[in-house]
Amino acid sequence: MLVSYKWLSEYLDLSKISAKELSDQMSLTGIEVEGVEVPQEGLKKIVVGEVKECIPHPDSDHLSICQVDIGEEELSQIVCGAPNVKAGIKVIVALPGSRITGNQKIKKGKMRGEVSNGMICSLQELGYSDNVIPKAYADGIYYMPQDAVNGSDVFSYLDMDDSIIELSITPNRADALSMRGVAYEVGAIYRQTPTFNDEPLKEDSTESASDYIDVEVKDTTDTPAYQIRIIKDVTIAESPLWLQNRLMNEGIRPINNVVDVTNYILLLFGQPLHAFDYDKLASKKILVRRGNAGEELVTLDGEKRELSNENIVITNGKSPVALAGVMGGADSEITDGTTTVALEAALFDAVSIRKTSKEFNLRSESSSRFEKGINQATIGQAGDVAAAMIAKLAGGTVVSGTAVGSEVKLDEITVSVTLSRINKYLGTSLDLATVNEIFETLGFEYTVDDETYGVTVPPRRWDITIEADLIEEVARIYGYDNLPSTLPKGETVAGSLTSGQQLVRKIKGLLEGCGLSEAISYALTTENKSSQFMMRKSQPTRLQWPMSEERSVLRMNLVSGLLDDVAYNTARKNTNIGLYEIGRVFYRNEEEAQELPYEENHLAVALSGNQTVKDWQTKEVPVDFYTIKGMLEVMFDSIGLADSISYEAVDDYAELHPGRTAKVKLNETVIGFIGQVHPSIAKEYDIPETYVAELNVKALVEANTHSFVYQPVTKFPAISRDIALLVDETVTNQELVEVITENAGKYLQSVHLFDVYQGANIADDKKSMAYSLTFVNAEATLVDEEINKSLAKVEKALIEAFNVTIR
């Protein structure tokens, strides 16, 4: 919400209060101020000029040479390229040495050989955005009023010397989405009662609005209040400068004197209005109902909308002429030929408006206010003031009365609270006089009976319904900064980590010890990235109203987020990357599409570049599959799960290299994967060769329940024997180790692969693998006979299982 300090000053005495002081006080009382902007800041030497003569440039087909009166003895020559420049108009002139938007300095110069003493400016060059500039001046210069004094600063004429306060309004304070609401708020802060100078309504009693139109509301739940006023004999023209300035400073484009009034009232009362061209309605009836399937409506933005039963529509008895609470129809809009205006003031169901706004992706000032709530007590008053202003600015006549389709009946809301309750909640010692004064300055009527307040809440504060709301109001106006500071009392309990939290913290330390850095990625991503690197089947969880397509779906993996981080670093010449992330992924079963997603804690790792950097004595060594596998094995060994972990080569992950990928299994349960990112996927992310892994941390936590059993180091010597095997190339180390372990007997302590060879003297489809087997008996010294029996059993099992050749 943008608040004009000048506009607010019309209702309150702010002569001794600066805009900066006002914004600070509002922030202290609960309405956050995003900032204060003065439009003229950064601009200088910009004045009013009058074009006395305008001739075409002899060497250009689009430039004009203008003689401009800027309040000096001699006319100033300025070359202008605007298509709408002409003699007899008053314009905005940036003098030589002036500064326009973007801190651009204007100098005296020549254009196609002709001297130009400055610039004739458009509103864009003064910092106005394109979407607030009147369409008549969107592609050219702006015309100043004829009574503007030549040579005077333009800032006061355009209200650019005003201070615009930007408020961040929370959903519960929708009453502050209007100037009147803000005036009441500021009045309460400075103990003033705002005075509003609304235009008085004068009606033509010779006719009645019901003579012009009949209004019917099909469902009062959808439309609790709806009424039409008729203003006849209007003349459509530009709004006066003060009204255009006010709208532009509030971020709204001026259209014409009728539409601008409806937008002005929207800002003043927070009450959305809509003006129909009465003659274009093609009937004397307004019917408010739900849309029918197959009906269509062309809205004011020129788009054809297909309606449904979810949408509330305004019809002329048959055909839709407006999308209720969101946007009017193009066929009934106010144009230069309009002579009679049907002015709508209504209240629509917030949920329906929100659904319609979302369905058509139409977010408007009107829909926003209907969604958050409006002051139901001023619906008719807002329409009356608007009708009076239209009659004044457009020279029309207000027909007496209103055509009413439905009316809302307000119930008086009274909330009780005791003084002791207020003081107990706030930790204060306020007396009755202080609290009385706060309720009075808020404009709340109240009664007091033995320190118990019965407060009647005005309709403009529909957010106050319970005792806690009243206590909050007292705290706000008394001043949060005035509340006493106290230390907490009572016993405290020492906190501790759960076993799962301890394990996660240990894993983080282990991975960082391996040289990895922790990354934190967005939980929201694109649907494509969300469905990559998945460890189980799941439906995506989509946001109903995402802030962008890149953040529209909850992730179902962590790897894709790390790959984005790898791409970000690679693009900035950081090529040696080691990242890990522990975070939640979100799964959803297809048959449970309406249920909340199931959250699961995962660990992901990504490596790219070199594991060893080249220096004077070391060659660079790139990361590979075994680098990342080694890091995981360090982790598994440190948390006591190494004996339960196995790896199985697979090629069923579309996003991973089919020859460099393995499943990670805990006992017989798959808990993750490890592998190289497929080259085609790496190309999509624009990253070099990268290796990744993802594990289910929940499974690690559940498995990490055993206690460590410490054993003394044996005093008997260990014996090592080597065995070399010639095996098929397809046989994996995991398979060989499993067979050796199963058959080597109870004295086998470890199996270590120390050599793999393929090349000369070995068949192309074969490989040589050499293992060192270590045996130890904790109770006696082992003898060769025992070791030989174990080795013989191992060799036999290997020959039977894989047809190996013992070398």
UniProtKB/TrEMBL annotation:
It comes from the Bacteria. It is found in: Cytoplasm. GO terms for cellular component: phenylalanine-tRNA ligase complex. Keywords: Aminoacyl-tRNA synthetase, ATP-binding, Cytoplasm, Ligase, Magnesium, Metal-binding, Nucleotide-binding, Protein biosynthesis, RNA-binding, tRNA-binding. Its main location: cytoplasm. Residues 40-155 form the TRNA-binding domain. It catalyses: tRNA(Phe) + L-phenylalanine + ATP = L-phenylalanyl-tRNA(Phe) + AMP + diphosphate + H(+). Its cofactor is Mg(2+). Residues 714-807 form the FDX-ACB domain. Its EC number is 6.1.1.20. Mg(2+) binds at residues 463, 469, 472-473. GO terms for biological process: phenylalanyl-tRNA aminoacylation. One of its GO terms (molecular function) is catalytic activity, acting on a protein. Binds 2 magnesium ions per tetramer. It is an enzyme of class 6 (ligase). Residues 410-485 form the B5 domain. Pfam families: B3_4, B5, FDX-ACB, tRNA_bind, tRNA_synthFbeta. NCBIfam families: pheT_bact (TIGR00472), YtpR (NF045760). Tetramer of two alpha and two beta subunits. Belongs to the phenylalanyl-tRNA synthetase beta subunit family. Type 1 subfamily. This is Phenylalanine--tRNA ligase beta subunit.
